[in-house]
TrEMBL record:
Gene3D superfamilies: Winged helix-like DNA-binding domain superfamily/Winged helix DNA-binding domain. Residues 1-132 form the HTH marR-type domain. Keywords: DNA-binding, Transcription, Transcription regulation. Pfam families: HTH_27. This is MarR family transcriptional regulator. The keyword Transcription regulation applies. SUPFAM superfamilies: Winged helix' DNA-binding domain. Transmembrane segments: none annotated.
């Protein structure tokens, strides 16, 4: 299916712009939201956990976490190893998560307007399969 990636990428930028606008009230961007979302859904986590999940360099996640600490959305808690930084949401972070999650859900619903349930489910189930194929291909560079 020629042109698939172009169609996907043409959707990505406007979506990120919408999400950034939606979260600007909280001084957040989509990249900061990713950290909040990960911690909310995986519990207190290390910087390495988050960077591995999103396949982003650890210094990038460190900068995001520092910004979220400034906003009092996350805090560090002691780990087993003093060098290990464990991050969790603060009470304020939990509240902001709930408010943003509702706004994002509303945005998702509006973006799916006019798309029947079956098509929505197919798309929802297909995207992770595409990601998995990409990840398998990256793991096998000799192809």
């Amino acid at each position: 299916m020629e042109g698939f990636f172009q169609r996907y990428l043409s959707l990505y930028r406007p979506l990120i712009t919408k999400l950034n606008d939606l979260m600007s009230t909280y001084e957040l961007s989509y990249s900061l939201w990713q950290v909040i979302f990960y911690i909310k859904n995986h519990g207190a986590s290390t910087l390495v956990d988050i960077s591995n999940y999103y396949q982003v360099e650890k210094p990038t996640i460190t900068r995001r976490v520092h910004r979220l600490e400034e906003l009092e959305i996350v805090k560090q808690i002691p780990g087993k190893d003093r060098r290990e930084k464990i991050i969790q949401l603060t009470e304020r972070g939990e509240e902001i998560y709930k408010e943003c999650r509702k706004k994002i859900t509303d945005l998702e619903h509006s973006m799916m307007h006019g798309i029947n349930q079956e098509e929505q489910i197919t798309t929802f189930n297909t995207l992770p399969k595409i990601k998995n194929n990409i990840m398998k291909r990256e793991g096998n560079k000799s192809e």
